[in-house]
């Protein structure tokens, strides 16, 4: 396995900065079918694995590659927190938790 299969730490850093910004600026977050959906204004952005890449689409259109050399992309919601786990082709796993800026937990006495 060459370094071609590895996710460069700088790429991961840029990805996490972008995701942090996107999650924070979104007003709603959802995870379905291992895809992350973020609603910002009237734009619904989705993040999903496509072949060996992570792509971002807006309103179901476009194909912006935001990470490559990925063997596995897992996303889940832990309460209000978005948890992303990515494994590159070299077998290294990267994990990060993203906290939405707006807390949707203002329910009183349920």
Could you give the order of the helices and strands? HEEEEEEEE
What sort of overall outline do the alpha carbons produce when their principal axes are compared? Answer: globular
Which sequence of strands runs across the widest sheet? 1-2-3-4-5
**Mean pLDDT across every amino acid position:** 90
Number of strands: 8
State the end-to-end distance: 53 Å
Low-confidence region ranges: none
Main sheet properties: 5 strands, antiparallel
Strand content: over 45%
Helix content: 10-25%
Please work out how many helical segments DSSP would assign.
1
Structural class: alpha+beta
Radius of gyration: 15 Å
Describe the protein's architecture and organization.
With 110 residues, the protein is α+β, with helices and mostly antiparallel strands. 15% of the residues lie in helices and 51% in strands. The protein is built from one helix and eight strands. It has one helix at 9-25; strands at 28-32, 35-40, 43-50, 53-58, 61-68, 70-78, 81-88, 93-98. Strands 1-2-3-4-5 form a five-stranded antiparallel sheet, covered by helices on one side. The radius of gyration is 15 Å and the shape is globular. It starts with 8 loop residues before the first helix and ends in a 12-residue tail after the last strand. The mean pLDDT is 90.
Describe the structure in brief.
The protein is α+β, with helices and mostly antiparallel strands.
Features:
globular, 8 strands, 110 residues, 5-stranded antiparallel beta sheet, alpha+beta
């Amino acid at each position: 396995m060459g370094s071609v299969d590895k996710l460069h730490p700088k790429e991961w850093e840029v990805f996490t900065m972008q995701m942090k910004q996107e999650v924070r600026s979104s007003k709603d977050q959802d995870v379905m079918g291992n895809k992350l959906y973020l609603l910002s204004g009237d734009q619904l952005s989705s993040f999903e694995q496509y072949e060996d890449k992570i792509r971002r689409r807006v309103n179901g259109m476009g194909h912006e590659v935001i990470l490559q050399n990925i063997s596995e992309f897992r996303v889940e919601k832990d309460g209000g927190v978005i948890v992303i786990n990515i494994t590159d082709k070299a077998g290294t796993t990267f994990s990060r938790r993203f906290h939405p800026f707006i807390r949707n937990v203002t329910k009183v006495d349920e």
